[in-house]
Amino acid sequence: MSLEGVHRFLTVFLRNPAMRADILRGVSDDQLRSLGVDDPELPLVRAIDLNVLYRSARGLADERRGRRRQEFTQFIDYLEQFIPMEPFWEGFEQAYPSGTLHRMEEVRRFSDYATRFLLESPLPPFLLDLMQFNLHTTSLSEAPRVQIEGALDDDAIGDMVLPSDEIALREPYRVVEFRCDVIRIASQSLSQLGGPPPYQPTTLFIQKDWSQPKTARAIPLEELPMFRHLRERALVHDRIAQFDRRLAYSLIGHLRELAHRGIIHVFRKA
């Protein structure tokens, strides 16, 4: 006996909330057969303690929910201020009953489900922006660093970025537009905001943080005045030559700050 039917039954019970509810209400042998349980396996399935199995199912569901809460912390913290969360979670588990060990696949599943849920509900629009913000920061925190040969280690940069140095943005990063100030929203509670935030278009530079594992940083693009000059590797001199002397001097200091914050690579000839 291969016990494949027993394994299928266990998978359905543990992963599919709707089927689990049906089974707990009672199922006939024919219904078990429809789940792939063969006749010799029926006594084995009937002998399973469903109360113990239910506790296992809840433990798996709680673990799965906990991981999504870690990845979408601010979104979920705000969402539960507007709706009871149990129907939301049950809907996600019904839409994607089979969990996966691949974290980013689960992240994409959750974001797809949450997007549909928000678009079909009368909830405040800022929740969708906040969910997308969490999606981008999580995705970039998980993405591998894009190593470039010849880039200086942070300790080797020193106190100065030289005109003869080459610079380039560290990757991966994304530039994302939002309809509201998601950085402010993510750092405050709904009561601190005084209600749903107003429409306030914001563009963020979101980058994997090279200084800490599994993290990403978000910076208003307006705080990176040289962004469009940093997207490709180039000499510092060439990047500042188009500005007047006073501004060019200021930009040297700005580049030094970006280097020390780990936002740009620095390349220096020996």
Please give a structural write-up.
The structure is a single chain. With about 270 residues, the chain is mainly alpha-helical. It is about 55% helix and about 10% strand. It has 15 helices and 6 strands. The chain has helices at about 5-15, 15-25, 30-35, 40-45, 50-70, 75-80, 85-95, 105-120, 125-140, 155, 180-185, 190-195, 225-230, 235-240, 245-260; strands at about 165-170, 175-180, 200-210, 215-220, 235, 265. The strands form 2 sheets. The chain has a 3-stranded antiparallel beta sheet. The protein has a 3-stranded antiparallel beta sheet with strand order 2-3-4. Helix 6 (about 75-80) runs antiparallel to helix 9. The termini are far apart.
Distance between the termini: 70 Å
Kindly provide the radius of gyration, computed on alpha-carbon positions and rounded to a whole number of angstroms.
26 Å
Structural class: mainly alpha
Low-pLDDT sequence parts: none
Major sheet: arrangement of strands: 5-1-6
Annotation, overall tally of beta strands = 6
Q: Largest sheet, if any?
A: 3 strands, antiparallel
Shape: elongated
H/E series, N to C?
A: HHHHHHHHHHEEHHEEHEHHE
Number of helices: 15
Q: What is the residue-mean pLDDT, rounded to a whole number?
A: 90
The percent range for strand residues is 5-15%
Helical residue percent band: 40-55%
